[in-house]
Specification:
This protein is an alpha/beta fold. It has twelve helices and twelve strands. Helix 1 packs across helix 12 and helix 5 packs across helix 12. It comes from Belnapia rosea.
């Protein structure tokens, strides 16, 4: 079981440590001058991957997800000259299970979902790149929101009230808030009067607005104006789609930084395919900025290479959470 100090280190977000594959050089970034978008044309790896299957993590309604990723899908098809299918999952578990069943080839995962897939496949998934924020960081935060008219202004005001988690496989929507609150001396099982899973980030926020819960946790970049839904994240996406007005909500708590989730693929797939996927994403913000903005729900600096070692703390936390759940049962 990981030590308390090791788990705290995740939330402190140390600088990215290159894993064994990247040990001989610094991680490549979208801002590097020599990053070029892959030339269009068929690839030798197409013999093993006649169709590219892209998983779309839950947390947003299916129609909106398919719409946001439609141009991304078309760009993949034009670049690598093969059919690309999008597979939107109803929740995070759907993508995790699809990787385990080898029904997906790549997906942008949350850090907790990646760790879950890594555990479910016994290390059979591999991170390629993660999102870099506008300030050069590779982190985001969990935020807890309540209705602005609720009278709830701090975490202490949530004692005995109803709390909505976004998804059991979400870092910001479940795992990190629970760990962070325990670190503050708050036992979520005893502190809140009622808890439940809303079925996704959008659903959790809507449940608060509809007074089904008093507060919910979701993800945000932690940068930019909270009154605008921050620069990137679930709240910003909902503001842009006209689903919410941030004047309806109040941010009452936020976590320490959490490492952004990775574009994830299967370890067994060809090395040339993985390199093409790295370069496709690293070059995407400059080559196709609007497609980048659509899939990332807002602006940022692009992507940065990562390795499995960068997510080891999250894997350890998932193991700890599973062990505690078994003890509770």
């Amino acid at each position: 079981m990981p030590t308390r100090r090791a788990l705290a280190a995740l939330l402190a977000l140390p600088a990215l440590r290159p894993g064994p594959v990247l040990a001989q050089r610094a991680p490549r970034r979208s801002t590097d001058a020599d990053i070029a978008f892959p030339a269009a044309g068929p690839r030798a790896w197409k013999a093993q991957l006649p169709q590219l299957r892209v998983g779309l993590l839950g947390g947003e309604n299916e129609a909106d997800r398919l719409g946001r990723f439609s141009e991304y899908r078309a760009l993949l098809e034009r670049t690598f000259e093969l059919p690309v299918r999008l597979f939107p999952a109803s929740d995070y578990a759907g993508v995790i299970q699809a990787f385990g069943a080898k029904q997906l080839d790549i997906a942008n995962m949350s850090p907790s979902a990646y760790a879950g897939a890594w555990l479910d496949t016994n290390g059979g998934v591999e991170p390629l790149v993660t999102t870099e924020e506008a300030d050069g960081s590779v982190s985001y935060v969990a935020v807890m929101v309540a209705r602005a008219d609720s009278g709830i202004t701090s975490i202490e005001d949530m004692r005995g009230k109803a709390m909505a988690w976004s998804d059991p496989n979400s870092a910001s929507g479940y795992l990190i808030p629970r760990f962070s609150l325990r670190r503050q001396g708050i036992n979520p099982e005893q502190f809140f009067g009622r808890t439940g899973f809303a079925g996704g980030h959008e659903q959790a926020v809507v449940a608060v607005l509809q007074r089904q819960y008093d507060a919910a946790v979701t993800w945000a970049s932690g940068q930019g104006e909270a009154s605008e839904g921050f620069s990137r994240g679930a709240l910003r996406a909902m503001v842009e789609k006209g689903l919410i007005d941030m004047g309806q909500l109040r941010v009452i708590w936020r976590s320490d930084p959490i490492i952004n989730g990775p574009q994830t693929t299967r370890v067994e797939l060809p090395a040339a395919f993985k390199e093409d996927m790295r370069l496709f994403h690293l070059a995407l913000p400059k080559a196709h900025p609007e497609i980048y903005r659509q899939i990332e729900r807002g602006g940022g600096a692009g992507y940065r290479e990562v390795s499995a070692a960068d997510y080891q703390f999250m894997i350890d936390m998932r193991r700890q959470e599973a062990a505690e759940r078994r003890r509770r049962n």
